Amino acid sequence: QPLISSSKWLQLHGLKRNKLSLSQILPQIGFQHREDYVTTLGKPVASRYAAGLFPQYMRAQDGSVYNLTAKKELILHFVDCLMRAIELYKQRMDWLTSASRQIFGVIQEQCIVIVLDFGTASPAEFDLCCDALSMVLMEQVTQIAKFNLIRAAWDLVRWQPQPAAVSEQAVSSAVKWLWRLARAATASPGSSAEALLEAMGDETVSS
User: Fold this and answer.
1) How far is the C-alpha of 143 from the C-alpha of 166, rounded, in Å?
2) With contact defined as beta carbons under 8 Å apart, do 172 and 77 qualify?
3) Residue 111's beta-bridge partner residues?
4) Tell me: the pLDDT tens digits for 58-67?
5) Which residues on adjacent β-strands are paired with residue 31?
6) What is the per-residue pLDDT across 112-133, written as a single tens digit (0 to 9) for each?
7) Domains, the chain, ranges and CATH?
8) For a designed S-S bond to 152, which of 76, 105, 117, 124 qualifies (C-beta 3.0 to 4.6 A apart)?
9) pTM for the full model?
10) Which parts of the chain register pLDDT below 70?
């Protein structure tokens, strides 16, 4: 799936985009039960005279009542469309809460720098961090334009002097570099902040 925000995804695949929201479906399967004064006719026109002729549905949001006139086939069509929409929503939720997205969210920027601060991680914790970082590099960074890695330490360590163009070779090189890092590196109290400033100092970096 493309690395887009949920709001953008909803613009493309949401109920409103596919004319499946309740307010869009109701006018297609019935008419509103109300009495209005119609200026052109000069008199009230009331759908309330249809009371008892049709099944009715009340919208909890505003209390409006609709007389349902659609045939069974049209109702079943909307049921089918909504079931497919529910399945699509489930797939999106499963995707959002799996693999690297569960830890890092969805990367939407095209040029990023990942700052590595392992602190006092044990060897096992260090390996878990490297596993997670390798995952995000291979799953998400492969879909953007440029990236770099900086390790926060007494002497900052960069993977590349500047963000590099994304390619299969570049990502593979970054993963190998990551696993070659020393598990124990001396850090100063301000090394994390210094690494972040370094990362954001490049004008091309968007996050």
Assistant:
1) 8
2) no
3) 146
4) 887 787 888 8
5) 67
6) 999 999 888 888 999 999 999 9
7) 6-97 (no CATH), 102-205 (3.40.50.410)
8) 117
9) 0.74
10) 34-39, 41, 44-51, 184-187, 203, 206-207
